[in-house]
């Protein structure tokens, strides 16, 4: 997969993308200003996921998006982990490029330097092998076990871990600290959610109304 996508990912590095991707400044209750952006692997992760979704469906004899899975120990499972890790590394590098450009603008406009010590990098569509505590209903008790946790539209929220929950357009975003709650698989939401789909929004909200709403809130 890496070789298949090489021509695309070299051209797109350092670009924000479309959809719900954004750049914003966040002012917190301790008078700190955070640079925040939401962007990822620039569709490379999506293409990779679609490819392995098909592989998993064939491996399980099922259909796409029918909870088909890859055996981790299989050749295909190991290939998926390799390609997923590449997508995550690419997404991080993509965000670094943009954050550096963002920082230069802040320096130029305010004279302030960026403090990189609290940089938060968080994924929201991925899987990871983690030590999990969960209630085994069959055994009637709690168990500790290493499991592969898949987070789709969710982020890791281990105890003390810094995270990000973006708000909807026109509302505040949040810098959060995880509680490590076992019942939620040490996870939290990665955004505010939607009251309507993107297609519905295009049908029901005019461009003029949208721009007016943003301007009323002082958002460019």
From TrEMBL:
It is an enzyme of class 6 (ligase). GO terms for biological process: DNA repair; RNA processing; RNA repair. The active site is at residue 190. This is 3'-phosphate/5'-hydroxy nucleic acid ligase. Keywords: GTP-binding, Ligase, Manganese, Metal-binding, Nucleotide-binding. It comes from Zooxanthella nutricula. Mn(2+) 1 binds at residue 21. The keyword ATP-binding does not apply. Binds 2 manganese ions per subunit. GMP binds at residues 20-24, 124-125, 166-169, 173, 190-193. Its cofactor is Mn(2+). It catalyses: a 3'-end 3'-phospho-ribonucleotide-RNA + a 5'-end dephospho-ribonucleoside-RNA + GTP = a ribonucleotidyl-ribonucleotide-RNA + GMP + diphosphate.
């Amino acid at each position: 997969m890496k070789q298949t996508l090489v021509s695309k990912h070299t051209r797109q590095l350092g670009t924000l993308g479309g959809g719900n991707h954004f750049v914003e400044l966040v002012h917190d209750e301790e008078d700190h200003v955070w640079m925040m952006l939401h962007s990822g692997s620039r569709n490379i992760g999506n293409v990779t996921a679609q490819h392995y979704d098909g592989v998993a469906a064939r491996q399980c004899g099922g259909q796409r998006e029918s909870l088909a899975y890859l055996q981790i120990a299989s050749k295909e499972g190991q290939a998926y982990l390799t390609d997923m890790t590449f997508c995550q590394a690419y997404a991080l590098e993509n965000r670094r490029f943009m954050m550096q450009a963002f920082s230069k603008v802040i320096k130029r406009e305010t004279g302030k330097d960026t403090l990189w010590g609290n940089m938060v990098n968080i994924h929201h569509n991925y899987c990871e092998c983690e030590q999990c505590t969960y209630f085994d209903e069959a055994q009637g008790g709690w168990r500790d076990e290493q499991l592969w946790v898949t987070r789709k539209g969710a982020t890791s929220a281990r105890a003390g871990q810094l995270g990000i929950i973006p708000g909807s357009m026109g509302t505040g975003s949040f810098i959060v600290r995880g509680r490590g709650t076992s019942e939620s698989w040490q996870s939290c939401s990665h955004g505010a959610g939607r009251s309507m789909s993107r297609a519905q929004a295009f049908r029901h909200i005019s461009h003029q109304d949208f721009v007016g709403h943003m301007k009323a809130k002082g958002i460019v």
